[in-house]
Structure formats: C-alpha cells, structure tokens
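Researcher: I'd like a structural prediction for the single chain below. Treat it as a standalone chain; there are no partners to consider.
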Amino acid sequence: MRNDLPVMCSILKRVEYGATAASLTIQYPCQFQPGQFIMAWIPGVDEKPFSISRHNPTAGTIELTVKRLGPVSAHIADLTVGDRVGIRGPYGNPFNPQADCVIVSGGVGLAAVAPLMEMFPNAPALYGENSSTQIMLADRFPRMRIFTMDGSAGEKGFPTDPLPEILAARKPKVVYTCGPEVMMAKVARICHDAGVAGQISLERYMKCAVGVCGQCCMDGERVCVDGPVFDSERLLKGKDFAFRGLDKSGTWVYKAQPE
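Model: Treating it as a single chain, here is the predicted structure.
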C-alpha cells in the first residue's frame, strides 16, 4: 500500500561519500520497483523527490543516496542516525527489467539505476562523475566502469564515450540510464543509431508527485505519473527533453540548446 501522506521515519544508517553525498538507510516498509521514487519531507524546510537506491523488503528499509545540490538535498544528506524524515510513496512508473542490458549513469543518477545494477551484476555499468571526490557506491559495485571529467579516477571522459562500441559488440535488448539530461539525450541518440531500446529516468521539479500540480509537465506529460521512466524514442520526438523544464515558480528554465 502506498502512503500519500508523509510518514515520519528514522534514519538507521548513514554512509558518507566525501563532502558531496551520503546514503541513508531509512525504516520505511513499502512495495517498490526499480525506477520509482519517494518524496522526502523536512518539516519547515521543503519536500523533494529522491530515487530509492536500495530496497530491503525483509528489513522494511529503503536507502536514499543524496547529493548536496541545494538546501533541501543538503539538509537531507546531513541527517544522522536517529534523525527523522517524512517519507511518502513510492511513486511513478518503474523500469522494465531485462537482464540483457547496459546501464549508464551520471552523478546522482546512479541512485536510480543502482537497484538494476544489483539485479543484473554482470551487465556492463558505466558511471560518470566530475572528479574522484564525488564518486559514490564504488564499494557496493566494484565492477562498474568509472569515468571522471578530470581523469582523477577511473577513465578520463564520459560514460557515453564507449557506449557505441559496447552496443555494436553486445547488441543488448535495452540501455537503462539516469543522470544529467544532456548525457541522457546523448544516450538516447546512440541507442537510436544502434537500433537498441532505451529507458530513461527523468527528474523534474515536483510538488505533488500524484499528477495534480502540473509542475513536472514535459511535452504535455507529467513526469511523476507518466514517468519518471520513459522510452528514449518517445523523448527524442518531444521538444522539452534536454532543452527546458519548469522551475519551482512555474517559469521555463532552459537547460541546453538541442543538437
């Protein structure tokens, strides 16, 4: 059963990744499918959507892997064992898991695909960060191929760099991806050129998560209920993907010029 009102839940465990991010294990029994998200609420601060990076139905716990990108995410990332956070959800349409896959992530988008990486440990997993100081979940996924923009860890470059060659060699059924939209748009184009299906997990500013407020609208669809996982070909046919999105005031914010 899904909770549509926040339930105050305790932080059971905290693992920090340098000065930029942390994983929080939270006591929150729920039914979850990879790709879904929850809304996390700090009373007196705000509420934001976060991917579930791990689910333990036996223990009744979820894990959130959070980067300090703004005041809300920084506040949540700084929570310690014994603190409480309001949780509701999970929400959204999940990935369609298939073992014959390739997984591509960038930044905190790793959190959204982490359950798939756990489900399919032999699938190629490509993960990109700006530098070695921002790398997350490396101990949990020692086989993932790491890329950094400055070359301080793993391979210098982007996780999309080897993707065309990998798709040509393996011909997988699907590519799963989450990360910066510019990166995901490149993944979508590579998938299109290779004739491989792509499933993309999108992030948009969300207020309600149940399809009412329209804050996360993109090309006439609501990311919270029509997504957050979308078919890559469907996104490539739209006008907003990797181009623009609504901010918290409802104003269009332009992300990048389409190629």
